[in-house]
Design brief:
2 copies of one chain form a homodimer. Chain A has 99 residues and is of the alpha+beta class. The first copy, chain A, has a domain of 69 residues: Arc Repressor Mutant, subunit A (Orthogonal Bundle), CATH 1.10.10.10. The first copy, chain A, is built from 5 helices and 3 strands. Chain A has a 3-stranded antiparallel β-sheet with strand order 1-3-2. In chain A, a hairpin with a 2-residue loop joins strand 2 and strand 3. In chain A, helix 1 packs antiparallel against helix 4. The longest helix of chain A has 16 residues. At the A-B interface, helix 1, helix 2 and helix 5 of A face helix 1, helix 2 and helix 5 of B. The structure holds a DNA duplex (30 and 30 nucleotides).
Chain lengths: 99, 99
DNA sequence: ACGATATTTAGGCAATCTTCTAATTATTAT
DNA sequence: ATAATAATTAGAAGATTGCCTAAATATCGT
């Protein structure tokens, strides 16, 4: 699948977006990410695997835990795709000055 | 479904993204949007219906044609969601100065 | 009103997605 | 080595997606 598709698909699920939002405040392990979510840890694990695939998070083992970190690189790429709609040869009335 | 989900899901398909990119250059009718795409007009119509649902395009009838226009409002909203990851109480090393 | 053109809607099929339970792997503590 | 804890993987069910063909709707020209 195309890379942009993977990223936007990953962002299209509310559960995954809420995980990403919680990771903004700091790293969390899989168990912590599962807390409060109305689904099993197995399902949470599956969502995490998709986020990992999309490059939106990285993971490292810390003892018994898998610790997840937000990877902001891909966010910037997705943002850039969206920004191109305004900055790069778009219609005049939609254009934003380059600064 | 949540609004953000609808928008990101709409953006997650390469066919739909390519349609949006072509609409940047100017309005196109359904037939023109279908040209060059490896699928039937019915399928293209289905994709257009999803883009409309997401608020990414608007449509008006012009004689026999349905003319599609890019609606940039929603792009800005999606962009804002992504920007929040950097500007709003993110981790220090990811933060971008507010200007 | 009729036929041609433009587009959407309906119904169906295969693939993918989200969730589950059960089984497996990895690490820690005894 | 064994038991406990943390997390993933496997396999299955139900919903959704993306595509198709066929039928329906809307407009235009005669």
């Amino acid at each position: 699948m195309e890379y942009s598709s993977i990223v936007f698909k990953a962002l299209s699920d509310p559960t995954r977006r809420s995980m990403l939002e919680r990771l903004r405040a700091g790293d969390l392990n899989a168990g912590e990410l599962a807390e409060g979510l109305p689904m099993t840890k197995a399902s949470v694990s599956h969502h995490l695997s998709l986020l990992k695939q999309a490059g939106l998070v990285r993971v490292r083992r810390q003892g018994q835990n898998q610790v997840y970190t937000l990877d902001t690189t891909v966010f910037q790429e997705a943002m850039q795709w969206l920004m191109n709609f305004f900055q790069q040869d778009g219609k005049a009335e939609d254009r934003i000055p380059k600064g």
